[in-house]
Design brief:
Length: 176
């Protein structure tokens, strides 16, 4: 069985040569690679966002345990908005149009998608900073309302930005 596996792996280069001769296949492979990259970016970002959510929950518990029950409702709302963003990124449609739409994805469209992806990665840092601010507010027992509101606003902004990315993808797949 190992010999068969080694033969298949060694012939993979030959298979790539055959695929290169099939019209349109190279474009299909590139699109699949883009989809894979999109999925990998989203999985990475979701993992980092979940880390920040875990931190936020831990800080919220400290706030409440020290008598900050009055912040529970606002904190719950901020967490819900944040979790909605995480879920949206996690379950989003795969990026970039399918094989038959390959011609409709121009360089400008791809550049715009890459800009959205870069912004998505930037939001991880913004959430980290927001949770840092909440943690500092909790430690100092001041401006907790402001820190929670900042996180909720950030989550809403991030969701709106991600919706624009999805609108671009929907437009590309519809041929607009």
């Amino acid at each position: 069985m190992t010999d068969l596996y080694n033969k298949i792996v060694s012939e993979r280069g030959s298979l790539q040569k055959i695929f290169a001769k099939i019209p349109g296949f190279r474009g299909y492979q590139e699109m699949q690679e883009r989809r894979d990259a999109d999925r990998m970016i989203r999985e990475y970002v979701v993992r980092l966002l979940k880390e920040q959510m875990t931190r936020m929950v831990a800080v919220e518990k400290k706030i409440i345990s020290k008598g900050g029950i009055k912040f529970a409702s606002k904190s719950k709302s901020a967490k819900l908005t944040f979790q909605t963003f995480i879920d949206k990124v996690n379950t989003a449609m795969p990026g970039y149009a399918g094989f038959f739409d390959a011609v409709k994805v121009g360089k400008d469209d791809l550049e715009r998608l890459y800009q959205f992806d870069a912004a998505l990665v930037d939001y991880v840092d913004k959430f980290r900073e927001g949770v840092d601010a909440l943690e500092k507010a909790q430690q100092n027992n001041e401006d907790i309302d402001t820190a929670i509101a900042g996180l909720e606003t950030l989550a809403g902004e991030a969701t709106s930005a991600y919706n624009l990315r999805e609108d671009l993808l929907t437009g590309l797949s519809a041929g607009k």
